[in-house]
Design goal:
The structure is a single chain. It contains four helices and seven strands; from the N terminus they run βααβββαβαββ. It is α+β, with helices and mostly antiparallel strands. It has a single domain, classed as Aminopeptidase (3-Layer(aba) Sandwich), CATH 3.40.630. A seven-stranded mixed β-sheet has the order 1-2-3-4-5-7-6. Strand 2 and strand 3 form a beta hairpin. Helix 1 crosses helix 2. The longest helix is centred in the middle third of the chain and has 15 residues. It is globular, with a radius of gyration of 15 Å. The chain starts with a strand and ends with a strand. It binds coenzyme A. Coenzyme A binds next to helix 1, strand 4, helix 3, strand 5 and helix 4.
């Protein structure tokens, strides 16, 4: 089956929620512990945030999305991103494909930086982001609790401004 990368639309909200919830259940990627619904994803589209999906056939297996980093206008070009791959699609290049589309779109919009935070134990995410040219800046120690335990997070950035 043919692979694809495309901009997502509100019709994809259900599948995006499903993929996010798998990452959340795996406790590898977020401090959130409450599953998200399609209704919580839908505003991403209404608010104009970029969301790209990668997959095979007609099935999305990964998505990458970016959101404002701060509300102050000076930070308009800095966006926080997230990338999630469905369990069955991990390690097959879908995360990379979705991220490449997101980065290309961010450049086109005139944004200059993508940032995020990663759990230190998330070697797949650290490997993916390093290979895409992200820099690990440092570690926020004991940033928040997940399941009652303090967890560190590594801050990453990629600058592509001119
Ligand atoms: C982390 C995640 C996004 C990576 O996406 P992926 O589609 O599995 O990764 P890809 O197949 O595109 O791999 C791209 C690169 O990432 C790195 N990578 C991927 N999996 C890896 C692993 N298990 N260990 C180390 N590096 C890894 C490699 O550098 C790889 O390059 P290569 O193909 O030349 O070896 C995905 O596994 C995932 O969604 N996990 C659960 C949720 C999550 O952790 N999200 C990130 C939140 S910050």
């Amino acid at each position: 089956m043919a692979r694809f990368v495309r901009a997502c639309s509100p019709e994809d909200a259900e599948r995006i929620a499903e993929i996010y919830n798998q990452g959340m259940e795996d406790r590898s990627a977020t401090f959130e512990t409450e599953p998200r619904s399609a209704q919580q994803i839908a505003p991403w589209f209404a608010q104009g945030h970029p969301v790209f999906g990668a997959g095979e056939g007609d099935r999305i297996l990964a998505y990458a999305a970016a959101f404002p980093y701060r509300t102050r206008p000076c930070y308009d070009g800095v966006r926080e991103f997230s990338v999630y791959v469905a369990r069955e699609g991990r390690g097959q290049g879908y995360g990379r494909a979705a991220m490449e589309a997101l980065i290309a779109d961010a450049r086109k919009r005139g944004w200059w930086k993508l940032v995020s935070r990663i759990f230190p134990e998330n070697h797949a995410s650290r490997g993916l982001l390093k290979s895409l040219g992200f820099r690990e800046i440092g570690t926020y120690e004991k940033h928040a609790k997940l399941d009652g335990e303090w967890r560190d997070v590594i801050i990453v950035e990629k600058f592509f401004g001119s």
